[in-house]
Amino acid sequence: MFDAIKKIFQGTSSGGSSAGGSVCGIDIGSGSIKVVQIKEEKGHIILETYGALSLSPFANDAIGKPAKLSEADTVKAITQVLKESRVTAKNFVVSLQSNAILVFVVTLPRASQTQLDTVIPNEARKYIPVPLTEVSLDWFIIPDKETYDQEAASTSATIEVLIVAVRNEMLQNYQTTLTQAAIVNPAFEIESFATMRSVLRREIAPVLIVDVGTGFTSMMIVEYGIIRIFHVANRGSAFVTESLSRSLSVPFEKAEEMKYNATKHPEIQPLLDASHEYLVSEIKRVLLEYEHTQNRVVSKIILSGGGSVVSGFKELVAQQTGLETVMADPFAKVDAPEFMRPLLVTSGPEFSVAAGLALKNMLSF
């Protein structure tokens, strides 16, 4: 799956390759930049360094708020986080935010590759609100599989195609900014694909991954490594802080601190639960859509992103959906000193994207 969506997201030279030594994944989010550097040595994937930097101070705003930075400030932020995290890699894989990408599945008549090269762009026009000349388009024919290792012979007259579209302008802007930050020929990848790589464990049954970022939340149901449903909700962890700030009449900064230290402020738990109701309802809607369209049920929910670790969110999702709900643990796929494991487990959800980016050419899944 991950190597199938190639044409848009490959680096133009050695970017993202592990052959040149260490690889650094750079997750440029709406609220922070996270980096993870790893290397492959004697069959082991070794964690070398990782770090994060909040973007809101560059916009003279409170930590925890989404930040829209100028190109110059973005370059400063990237340079700073690489320096402070002591990144030494020359190979980079950079995230493209899921809310700026279109990902959808279409059903088409079975046809030859030559015919599909014409049919798929024409079908994609129905879903893309701008001229196709303004986007880079890629697609992947979803195989009929009964298991990961055994493909079923299909007699169906139709096929399903996963289509991905990204604005050319966005890619060009990224390239310009990264070049100024001395990052040459990086590979690109949609953050949701990176998250899949870092948090999935070859689950056989369908899994829902919920990635709670600062400004938005992405949800995707994955079956046999393939995205079946992709949905972005325009609310993230900043919305929770703003709701708490209004309810308690405290500054945003104070509400942000309280949000992540609810054990010291047990009286705020009902407020946190109430502010998460919208996301939980969106999760239930995605689950219901999948059940109705695919006639299958999800077996487990994996929570990822910095906003997923807020007190009570995991328990609320589990209670409202009735499904096993676990936190992402992307660092479980890399070797690190044992004394660091508790910290890596705690911080793991926040670094799911960056870790998955760094693992791009080291893991097939």
Explained architecture:
The chain has 365 residues and is α/β, with parallel strands linked by helices. 32% of the residues lie in helices and 26% in strands. The chain is built from eleven helices and 13 strands. It has helices spanning 71-84, 113-124, 168-180, 191-199, 237-248, 252-259, 269-275, 277-294, 313-321, 341-347, 352-358; strands at residues 23-28, 32-41, 44-54, 91-96, 101-109, 135-142, 158-167, 187-190, 207-212, 217-223, 226-233, 300-304, 324-327. Strands 3-2-1-4-8 form a five-stranded mixed beta sheet. It has a five-stranded mixed beta sheet with strand order 11-10-9-12-13, sandwiched between helices. Strands 5-7-6 form a three-stranded antiparallel beta sheet. It is globular, with a radius of gyration of 20 Å.
Topology record:
Blueprint: E1 23-28, E2 32-41, E3 44-54, H1 71-84, E4 91-96, E5 101-109, H2 113-124, E6 135-142, E7 158-167, H3 168-180, E8 187-190, H4 191-199, E9 207-212, E10 217-223, E11 226-233, H5 237-248, H6 252-259, H7 269-275, H8 277-294, E12 300-304, H9 313-321, E13 324-327, H10 341-347, H11 352-358
Parallel strand pairs: 1-4, 4-8, 9-12, 12-13
Antiparallel strand pairs: 1-2, 2-3, 5-7, 6-7, 9-10, 10-11
Please give the radius of gyration in angstroms.
20 Å
Describe the sheet with the most strands.
Answer: 5 strands, mixed
The mean pLDDT is 88
Structural class: alpha/beta
Number of strands: 13
Unreliably modeled segments: 1-19, 146-152
Shape: globular
Could you give the order of the helices and strands? Answer: EEEHEEHEEHEHEEEHHHHEHEHH
Strand order of the largest sheet: 3-2-1-4-8
Indicate the percent of residues in helices: 25-40%
DSSP helical segment count: 11
Distance between the termini: 8 Å
The proportion of residues in beta strands is 25-35%
